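User: Can you help me understand a structure? I only have the sequence.
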Amino acid sequence: MPSEQPPAEQQPIVITDVDVDEAIAACGGDAREAIRTLLIAGQFMRPISRKQGKKRVGVTSGLGPRGS
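Assistant: Let's start by predicting it. Here is the structure, written out as tokens:
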């Protein structure tokens, strides 16, 4: 039986305020439309992620740990 290698550690994705501003700007300045677009994109990515057997990657605001 071949030995399985443990999955590589993945670093969390850092989402900055600039990233958020760019996403909103890409949707004509409409925050609700930006959220809708990102939710739809997430729905398309979910089956791809499952097919590849990927684990979820953590997302952080880039603001540091909670409570700091």
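Now, to help you interpret it: Helices lie at 17-26, 31-52. The chain has a mean pLDDT of 77. Let me know which part you'd like to focus on.
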